[in-house]
Amino acid sequence: xxxxxxxxxxxxxxxxxxxxxxxxxxxxxxxxxxxxxxxxxxxxxxxxxxxxxxxxxxxxxxxxxxxxxxxxxxxxxxxxxxxxxxxxxxxxxxxxxxxxxxxxxxxxxxxxxxxxxxxxxxxxxxxxxxxxxxxxxxxxxxxxxxxxxxxxxxxxxxxxxxxxxxxxxxxxxxxxxxxxxxxxxxxxxxxxxxxxxxxxxxxxxxxxxxxx
Length: 212
Description:
By secondary structure, this protein is α+β, with helices and mostly antiparallel strands. The protein contains four helices and eleven strands. The strands form two sheets. Strands 1, 2, 3, 4, 9, 10 and 11 form a seven-stranded antiparallel beta sheet that branches. A four-stranded antiparallel beta sheet has the order 5-6-7-8, with no helix packed on it. A hairpin with a 6-residue loop joins β6 (147-149) and β7.
């Protein structure tokens, strides 16, 4: 004899392969694709509509991005063609006629531009470096005390550049100095330097004899 509940069991199919697709009180509705799988109905995917405006907008954006990338690349190439160059003052420069430097004077005309003092002392004109031999600061000329004084750590130098106080280990350096017979001006050549403590500054290249 046929069991009258067989038909009900075939319809109910419990437990279901999609247990959360059955209506449950307070449950958030299932996604459309899941409902479609359970109900057997097809859900049509949304269609993208291509219009002339959309086509031109996409083309404009694409070409804009291409042009921007090309411009950046071109600028980088142009920059690469010009290497980094530090423009420094010339190492050999003209100063003034020898008679401009009076006895006992310290000329600071070229201190800022060329880092050199022109000092007339002891019967000679010297081209003295403005770089402190301690840590590279720039000393100041103190006329009232007749000395160079470094503001960083207190190093002191006589008018001829020889150190006498503070932590500096040696005198200020001197550069080659000469008079060009073509124009009668004093020239300084910073490509050649001497050190007083090594007794290399006695050469004629590093001092000019001057009259009192």
